[in-house]
Structures are given as C-alpha cells and as structure tokens.
Write a structure and sequence with these properties.
Blueprint: H1 8-18, E1 24-28, H2 32-41, H3 48-59, E2 68-73, H4 88-94, E3 98-102, E4 107-109, E5 117-119, H5 125-134, E6 139-146, H6 157-176, E7 180-187, H7 195-205
Amino acid sequence: MESANPFKDELIATARQIARPGFGILAADESTGTIGNRFTKINVENNEENRRAYREILFTSPGIEDHISGVIMFEETLGHATKDGKNFVELLTEKGIVPGIKVDAGVVKIAGTNEETATQGLDKLGARCAAFYAKGCRFAKWRAVLKIDMTNHCPSEVAIRENAHGLARYAAICQENGLVPIVEPEVLVDGTHTIQESAKCSERVF
C-alpha cells in the first residue's frame, strides 16, 4: 500500500542528505545544565549570550560544510543568530547542512525496576514537531537510555519494551510532521561488565 504521508519524498531526500558517505552529524544539543558544566571547567559564565556565542563558533567554523551533514540543536538555539544577525537555522541551511532538533523531555525512573529509565516527551509532540518544521528543522533526536548491570539483570525486558515503544511513537509522530527521526537506543558503556557482556546486552536491545 502506497504511503499517504505527504512528506514521504522529502523525508527520503533529507535522510539521504544526512547519511552522505564521509559526513557526520554534529550534536550541539547540550541542555543548559550540561553546557554549564562544560563552561565551568573553563571559567565561562553559563548565560544565553555565551551559549549563543559558543554555538556560533561551531556553526561558522571554516569548511564545516565539507564534513558535517546535519546539526542537532537545543530548542533555545533555534532563535539564536550570529553576531551579524544571520539566524542559525538559515546559516546551516545555506551551507547545505540539515538543521535538527532534540525533542525529548529527559528521562524518568521506571517504577519497579533497578533505577532504569524511560524517556518523556510524547505529550503534544506532534504540535512541537510541526512548529520545529516551520522553523526549518528537518530531523530530530530522541535519547532513549538503557544501562548494563549484570548483577541486577539490566537492561530488563520492561526497560527495553518501554523504550522501544517510546522510540516507535516518537518516530511515527516525527514522520507525520516532516522530520526524519534518529532512532538510537543508547546502551551505556558505564559499569564493570566485560566487552562480551556489553555486546550481548546491546544485541538484545537492537
């Protein structure tokens, strides 16, 4: 059955543009807290202007368009511009770089598990994706996190299923609104497990 999604051709073209051989995606979607931790280490105040200036340095790096095919941005960044007044989304688009956006709302603990988490943000995601598309974004990121703890049998089946469901719903909603979804369950490497145990857990998740 032929897809009824009016964005079908655009989604395919966007995915191909992002996945060009020899190019990568720049993750510039640090939250205000995360970027604050980085700024603290170099004695830089965590304010909006410094966050804007930092990202301007990244996005205006000479030759960035020769290596980067897409940039994931934090929502605040969509309204930012260079010191000369060029909106970041427009700047990236003119360089042939696809603007992307982080759409999840962080993680919460799953009751009844050993501190495992599920990702929030499905409520009103359709409206948010439509608004991001209108602002020039063409792909999205959703962070789904699973941990390895061999002693406590993590990742558990509950956590895997919960995160798989969230990723599936996020992906469908994104495509309905013109955004290519990055579907990336993140299996954390932290812990005392071996590389073989890590591989086994990752294969279960993927």
